[in-house]
């Protein structure tokens, strides 16, 4: 019969405790396990992986859509009747959710690397489920409300794909350490083959992805076209209230090529500038004339319209987060703006030789000038004395009449159609949303000598892509920012791009081969060791280190010479060795031991 008294001292393992504690709330040593992960926990790891990829894609989309946040807010305003900047809270929430899921993913991979059993805590499972459902709801909502915006992903790839490729190479190369470890530890040849083939397929696909990358900025520098001209979208709406005289003055100060405005005819026949169908968002009509708040803006007389304030909403809502940058004088001026007449804007454009791009709102059926609003607008333009070649005429209705009355206008179409048909109709240019045209479309229109203006372009990366694609002009809310872009953000000759691509692939492949060899050398032979050999080798390697080690003292009061194998096994099982937690076992002779 063997009697023993274990006295154990463990080396602190802070990193491992934090790893298992944060992931599964298993802070104590006895709570950890090297057993195989259960099928249920593997299922949760699969959900975690899917959620990670989904939130990553959603975060990339919402970052890319930053160019159109104002448009998104306007869509929600039309549905809810309440103006607020929803884009930034969504961005912050998305970033926080992705950071949380990414942290869980890293912890899970670390568990696999150190061969710890996965056991996700129930609170994390709740957080994971909430994040997954929220992301699915967000994606579904965008599909219903803003479906055309998905094209921004493919457009942004033209700017980011070369860099995303290098980042993906780095991630897959780092992941090879984990893959190689699983490959080396596995004793099943079939499992090894599956791991190797799956990883190899992903790797080869990633190495060949650049064959599918097409960006207009991969070109020779000598082929770069002239810088696209800039139209101010409703003036300079980041620096002053939109469609106001101050907004157009700020735009001209930026030396923009042209200005874009939205024209409406008042009930008594005065053309003025307003984008929305009602005046709730951009004026104080609810305070001045609450009974007219829901009326179409064209159903109100100019005598009432000119009394409204169109600046306080800009200061109160700060739609572009730029009000804090205004000087005191600009702040005061912005707060005292009124609705701008078309004639006043045309006079400003005439004095500064600025091109004018006009959009027109459709009038209600019971509007008294519904059938004559084109004539009224034409008369106002001609009476202003602005040179006809500075006016880009967009409406398709009454185009023949316009050609007769004002043959010098630049006839522009807002519909994407065949280039030959446009030329046959004597159309000189196109005004389209940037998501509706491809690089091939731009080349075709340029071949037919059709100028292209794309809206609304606010980000420097998007402006750079369109510059490389040979777009002639863009409409922007951020004219003051784009005017400072003197060169595309990046421009690579094809030879340089191919060199970067091939070099990155070769470096990645070399590192991965080295990692597989190292992991095979480190872990491949451990499969043939029994637990006692592993612990003995650990003791030999660590005996000379000046660290706190686990000591176990066995005090024998009686040794039975007839002890059988079952008693040996009992002694080993009671020792509670852990190959990763217990560092060294040092038997110490006790003075009372009798031999």
From TrEMBL:
Q: Which GO terms describe its biological process?
A: lipid metabolic process; positive regulation of neuron differentiation
Pfam families xref list: GDPD
Look up and give the membrane topology term.
Multi-pass membrane protein
Q: What is this protein called?
A: Glycerophosphodiester phosphodiesterase domain-containing protein 5 isoform X1
UniProt keyword Glycoprotein, yes or no: yes
GO MF term set: glycerophosphodiester phosphodiesterase activity
- Where is it mostly found? cytoplasm
User: Mind telling me which residue stretches traverse the membrane in this protein?
Assistant: 43-63, 86-114, 126-146, 152-177, 189-209, 498-518
Q: Which family does it belong to?
A: Belongs to the glycerophosphoryl diester phosphodiesterase family.
Its gene name is: GDPD5
Q: Which PANTHER family match?
A: GLYCEROPHOSPHODIESTER PHOSPHODIESTERASE DOMAIN-CONTAINING PROTEIN 5 (PTHR23344:SF6), GLYCEROPHOSPHORYL DIESTER PHOSPHODIESTERASE (PTHR23344)
Source taxon at top rank: Eukaryota
InterPro entries, per database record: GP_PDE_dom, PLC-like_Pdiesterase_TIM-brl
- Which UniProt key words apply to this protein? Cytoplasm, Glycoprotein, Hydrolase, Membrane, Transmembrane, Transmembrane helix
Where in the sequence is the signal peptide annotated? none
Where does the UniProt annotation locate this protein? Answer: Cytoplasm; Endomembrane system
Record GO cellular component, one term: plasma membrane
